[in-house]
Amino acid sequence: YYMKLILFVFTGMSISSTNLNGCKELNKCKEDQNTIVWKTTKKLQWDNFIGTMSGGFQFDANSNIKIRLEYILKKDKLRFSVCTLFLKNESFYRSAKDTTEYILNHEQKHFDIGEIFARILRERLLKLSNDDITSETLNKVYYKCIETQEIWDKKISKMLDSLNNYKQISN
Prior knowledge:
Elements: E1 2-10, E2 35-37, E3 61-62, E4 64-74, E5 77-87, E6 92-93, H1 101-126, H2 135-162
Antiparallel strand pairs: 1-4, 2-5, 3-6, 4-5
């Protein structure tokens, strides 16, 4: 039984998506021209943001972060790989004046949050017993991670709404 699962997290909004494809062997977390793998020793740089801004974008920058889960389930034995990836050609900044250290650090935090969710996913997968390892259980683990993201999205939206009277005040 082979499956591939992908979770996307975007700056400014969270969009979760599954992509279930055949997976005969696990891919190691590898970088390429468009992809940076999350590492404690490697921080984002402005030259990593090579995408093109879409019309009407209202934020200073956008980081496209992907959490990739690939797993192989054979004879109730689970092997998996979870990677947090930054997609260069889908990440961008609005203009050169927006390329401050403060904004770059903010975008790095989005990447770091992606790694937090990848670690939660790894932890939950490692805690499964052999009896629990079915495609149904793996999907439950995945959707539990999505629910956690949705809870945070709601908390953030609620906080923003509660402070709505204070957005754009000039004194």
